[in-house]
Specification:
Blueprint: H1 7-26, H2 30-38, H3 42-53, E1 62-71, E2 79-86, E3 91-100, E4 104-113, H4 120-133
Antiparallel strand pairs: 1-2, 2-3, 3-4
Helix pairs in contact: 1-3, 1-4
Length: 146
Amino acid sequence: MKKCPYSSQRERILAEAISPVATELRLLDASDLISLLRFEYYGSIADLVASAAELFFHPGTVNFGLGGNYTLEWGGKPEVVLDLEIKPHGVTVYAQLTLAEEHAGIEINHIAFHEPSADPDVNTAFFERSLRESRYNTRPLQTLAG
């Protein structure tokens, strides 16, 4: 995606929202993910992504985008890149999630607003609100008194 002044802000919003899913996926062994990518077991990867996402997002919000890549060099640390399709209400985002040993990152390739505003700031605010509304309530449970 051609970067624009609000691209980095939208990537930060998405990174914050998707970080728990990335954390869950980083619990998987890198060699397993690489094997699934190498042998094109995309259905298995889709299941893993769906399982990680279902803990935090409504069904169908975060999906595997049927592609990915990996880096595995002699003596180097593995890195896995998964294509994701993120669909909160009113927005479709195509992004790449990078999983490494000590970090994860997200890069938006394309973002499509179903009913875009002429004002990019309004679109960004809508994107943030839509992502928030597509998440399950993750506040800690309060104890019942009495």
